[in-house]
UniProtKB/TrEMBL annotation:
Involved in the transposition of the insertion sequence. InterPro entries: HTH-like_dom (IPR025948), Integrase_cat-core (IPR001584), RNaseH-like_sf (IPR012337), RNaseH_sf (IPR036397), Transpos_IS3 (IPR048020), Transposase_IS3/IS150/IS904 (IPR050900). SUPFAM superfamilies: Ribonuclease H-like (SSF53098). Pfam families: HTH_21 (PF13276), rve (PF00665). PROSITE patterns: INTEGRASE. This is Integrase catalytic domain-containing protein. Coiled coil: none annotated. GO terms for molecular function: nucleic acid binding. It comes from the Bacteria. It comes from Candidatus Neomicrothrix parvicella RN1.
Length: 209
């Protein structure tokens, strides 16, 4: 009845329906392949690419797709790019006279517990930046003290020194070498070194060398 009403043959109707079904299946297969490719690019670039950069990658791979489609598919899969902030030195000189350089670029030690180096490293996380302070024995490059916090105040490096004091036999008048950051030139840190029977030594800003 429908074929008669539309003035089409029954065989023509089935040819049209099968062609439409096949086109739908092909579209679904292509979209599935596109989704898998987008996810692969996103994870390969460590979640840093947004939809525009992923769209550019797809065009380079000869995909014919709009950036809007890429954005929609990323939304369907919950793919949200992250934009890490540029790395910066934690070091901030505060005008306090630095200690003398007792190391003089000789980063070796003939015995344990006499020469140490330390620094603060910023670690970016999803929850925000974290800071790691370390104390390393130059005799064998062993990390003998460390501390982690969400700040890089002097308390952080003092905690690392105290751990080193607990973990390692520090000889009297041992050297602790660092950069000239305000944390290392503070009176609080000088008192901490004195309690650990250590002498401060400093290199130029931004490096322990």
């Amino acid at each position: 009845m429908l074929c008669d009403a539309a003035d089409v043959s029954e065989s023509g109707y089935y040819v049209w329906r099968n062609r439409a079904d096949r086109a739908t299946t092909e579209r679904e297969a292509r979209r599935l392949e596109l989704s898998e490719t987008i996810c692969e690019i996103f994870h390969r670039c460590k979640s840093r690419y947004g939809y525009r950069r992923i769209h550019a990658e797809l065009l380079r791979d000869d995909w014919v797709v709009s950036d809007r489609t890429v954005r929609v598919i990323m939304g369907e899969h919950g793919l949200v790019s992250c934009h890490p902030r540029p790395w910066r030195y934690c070091t901030k000189a505060d005008g306090t006279p630095p200690a003398s350089d007792l190391i003089r670029r000789d980063f070796n030690a003939t015995e344990p517990g006499v020469r140490f180096v330390g620094d603060i490293t910023q670690i970016d996380t999803w929850a925000g930046p974290g800071y790691l302070a370390t104390v390393i024995d130059l005799f064998n490059r062993e990390v003998v003290g460390w501390a982690i916090a969400d700040h890089h105040r002097t308390d952080l490096i003092c905690d690392a020194i105290r751990m080193a004091k607990r973990n390692k036999r520090i000889k009297r008048r041992a050297i602790f070498h660092s950069d000239r950051g305000s944390e290392y030139t503070s009176r609080q840190f000088r008192r901490c070194l004195k309690e650990a029977r250590m002498r401060p030594s400093m290199g130029r800003v931004g490096t322990v060398r």
